[in-house]
Amino acid sequence: MYYTIKETVAALKSGETTSEKLVRSSIDTFTADQKSEKPLNAFLEIYDDALEAARAADAEIASARKDGTIDRLFEEKPLLGVPFANKDNISSKGHRLTCSSKILEVYVAHYNATVVARLVEKGAIPLCRCNQDEFAMGSSTEYSIYGPTRNPINRDYVSGGSSGGSTAAVAANQALFGLGTETGGSVRLPASYCGIYGLKPTYGVLSRWGVVAYGSSLDQVGILGHTPEDIALPLSLMSGVDFYDDTSADLPDSDKLSNLSAYKDFSSLKIAVPKQFEEAKGLDGDVKKVFDDTKKWFSGKGAKIETVDLPVLDASIAAYYVIALSEAASNLSRFDGIRYGHRVDNGAGYDQLYVDTRSEGFGPEVKRRIIIGNYVLSEQFSGDTYKKGMSVRARIQREVAALFENYDIILCPVCPTPAFKLGEKYDDPLAMYLSDLYTVFVNLARIPSISIPAGESKDGLPIGIQFAGKMFSEAKILQLAQAWEEEHKGCGIPVKEGK
Question: What pTM was estimated for this model as a whole?
Answer without folding.
Answer: 0.96
